[in-house]
Each structure stands twice: as structure tokens, then as C-alpha cells.
Amino acid sequence: MVNYKLLKKQKEFIEIPHEFPLDVAIYQGGFGSGKTWCGSLLGILMAKKYPGSRGLVGAKEYELVRKTTLITYLEHLEQLGYVEDKDYSYNKIDKIIKFKNGSEILFSQLDDEEKFKSLNLHWAEIEEASQIADSSFKQLLGRLRNTYRGDNWIDFRYRLFGHTNPQPNKDWIWKRFVQDKKPNYRLVIAPTTDNTFLPKHFVESLKENYDEDYYRINVLGEFGDYSSGLVVKGFSDENLKHFKYNPDLPVHITCDFNVDPMCWCLAYKDDENVYFFDEIVIENTTTQQCIDEFIRRYPKHKSEIIINGDASGDNRTTQSEYTNYAIIRNALKSYGYNFKFRLRPYNPPILSRIQAFNAKVKNSLGERHLFIDERRCKQLLYNIYNLSFKEGTSIVDVPTFTQIKTNKDFKYLEHPFDAASYLTEFYWKIK
């Protein structure tokens, strides 16, 4: 058995500072702040302190519960000296832990409210609370109605508690725990930097790899408006440079295969920096025409060419019997270029690409590692200055067909940024 030493914020989360019969608490923490660890410990304490109690642990999808929360519960039980089949049993089919003292902990998904609509609970825990709907939260509140009390339940209070990574937009957690906060609702914000058990280099590495807004939200645990306004954050004239083409340096071609327009970005890179020095943006075109344009511009390139970009370029298209990348391969081979392909097997989420791109534009230390030649990369810069999120969401605001008809420039939004961000995410993925 081990003796746990709680962090200050974990202790604040577990203890109830008021006299109301219901306590509702959210532990909002940065990466590595011990959210799931603390929530699971509280669930076990409830089961141990109140014999015969019933609790529910859930997340939007059961896979998250199974792979994260349940494992942490079982680890706690082992470390606390509980022996399976002696002190407790776990039924994988029914998804329930039963203790010798009569307490039960059920594990469930929460996106289907019918699955827990008839339960009578003493407490409930939500893994990644920001992922569930407000309606599921209200449904759980309505389940805290089990009237059973043991003889020694002197200070019992119903509890609904959850933990979550901070969210960029101010959703139901913000509304219920900040904007319209009730006296028995508690929001505990736990920065990653408060966790003294983490390796010393961990937080410093996050500062280096995250942009300022992302660091403030996902490390310091704060609410933010990361998803409002422009997609690219922190870009300034300091990111603008003039580059002289050098045929002896390896060149990266990173591709987006939209047909009208098709957008490719050309870049140099080293271990920390990326330099976008040219772009190929052509309306109503084909992959063959774009690679021909690259060869026309750089016929005497001597060093290696590295192809990055949209993973779907390896799928068959209607424009040719070959894949997009097969067309590029054949063209470069026929002209004697030295080349290789560096591609992901599938495309990462757009938000992952945005985060990786922004971290290179300007990280939380104020360092800039992404530079663009303003003379040749006009459409990429147009995206940086104009591509935005839909208000109040983390969804990129892509122009509609009607908007493009009224303003032709709108057709160039998104695709040049997609091309460039495929490269930054491939080499500097946010982990």
C-alpha cells in the first residue's frame, strides 16, 4: 500500500468547502496536471467511505473510459492494497466494480442518455467533461437521487464531479461554473506548472513547442478564445523574410490537391525552422500541370526534393488513372531529379495542423521559427491574414460557393494554408 501526497489543487478538488447537500465540481487542468488520477481517486474514496453506495463513471464514448479512466481506477486499487476477488470484483461484461462493502462503481458512455436514464446514484464522475453535451450533464444531475443511507453516512453529500482539458471556446462549463455560477458549483483550475512530480524539462519543452494562446489554455489551464478570430496567431513582419533560391539545398514541395485552385508550397527547412520561399497556385488545373510548372521554374535543381502534403493524394482520382503522387513521381523521375516522399498514412485533424503551424509562427517563449517570402508567397500570406474561424467555434470558416461567386479571392482561402500546414504538422507535430 502507498501513501499518496496530493497536490494543492487536487486536495481542493476532493474536499468540500460548503454545507450544501450537493457538490458539483470540475477539475480543469493543463497537460500532466493529474486530472484523471485525481478523479479516479475521489471515486474510490466515495465507494470506501460510504458502504453500499453507487457511483457512475462516464465519458462521451466508452472507449475513453475503458482506455483511460478504468485503467486508472484499477491502478489505484492495486496501489492502495485492494486485492481482486477478495476486496472487490470487476465484471467486464457488465462494466462494474463491486466492493466487499457493497459499494458499486458503474462505467458507461454518456452520449446515449437512455443508457443511464433509470439509474439512482449517490455520485457520478465525468471523464473529459467538455466533450459531453449540457443535456447529458443535466441528465446526470437528475440521477443523483439514491435515498439509501448507511448507518455511518453522517457527513454524506451527493457529488457530481468531472475533469477536463481546458477548452478554447466558452461552452457549458464556462456558463455553469463561471458566468452563472451557483454557490455549490466549484471550478478548480490546475496548471501543469503546479505538478511538482513532473520532470523538470517537461514544462520547458511545452513552452518551446506551443504558441502563446495554446500554452495559456492547455498548460496554464485557463479558458480562452483560441478558436475566435484568425486561424493563424501571432504572425508579424518578423515572420517575413527574403530568400534567395539555392539549387544546392533540399527543397520541400508540400501539396494540396484541390483542383480550382491547386496549391503547393515550396520550402527549405532545418531542425527548428521552415522557410516558405515560393508557391504554385493554379486555377482549374491538374497535378501534371503543377509539377510541370515546378520543373519549368527550377529545371537545374541539384539537391534532393522531398514531397510532403495531403495524404489523400495517394488515392485514385478522376483526373488520371494514376494517383497524384504517382504523377509527381513519374515527372520528377523522367527529368532526373533526386527525390523522396515523406507522407502520413492519413491526414491529421485540421486543428492539429493549425496548432503545429502556430507554434512555429511564434511559440510561448516569443520565438519565431516560420518565415515566408512575401514577394512569391502571396496566396499563403492572404490566408494568414484572412483565414478565420466561425465565430465561437473551432471550425474553419470556409467560403461558400455563393461567397466565391461574389468575390473571386475567396476561392484561395484554406487551400494554401492546408498545403503549408501539412508540412509543419509532419515535422513538428504537437504531442
So what's the overall shape?
Answer: elongated
- The low-pLDDT segments are 316-321
Give the tally of structural domains. Answer: 2
CATH fold-level assignment of the largest domain: Rossmann fold
What structural class should be given to the helix and strand makeup?
A: alpha/beta
Major sheet characteristics:
8 strands, mixed
Number of helices: 13
The string of secondary-structure elements, in order, is HEHEHEEEEHEHEHHEEEHEHEHEHHH
Provide the CATH architecture of the largest domain.
Answer: 3-Layer(aba) Sandwich
Description:
By secondary structure, this protein is α/β, with parallel strands linked by helices. It has 2 domains: 8-198, Rossmann fold (3-Layer(aba) Sandwich), CATH 3.40.50; 237-427, 2-Layer Sandwich (Nucleotidyltransferase, domain 5), CATH 3.30.420. Helix content is 32%, strand content 19%. The chain has helices spanning 8-14, 35-49, 62-79, 134-143, 172-179, 200-209, 212-218, 287-297, 324-334, 350-361, 378-386, 401-406, 415-427, and strands at residues 22-29, 54-59, 88-91, 96-99, 104-109, 123-127, 158-164, 185-190, 251-256, 262-269, 274-282, 305-309, 339-341, 370-372. The strands form 2 sheets. An 8-stranded mixed beta sheet has the order 3-4-5-2-6-7-1-8, with helices on both faces. A hairpin with a 4-residue loop joins β4 and β5 (104-109). The longest helix is centred in the N-terminal third of the chain and has 18 residues, at 62-79. It starts with 7 loop residues before the first helix and ends with a helix. Residues 316-321 have low confidence and may be disordered.
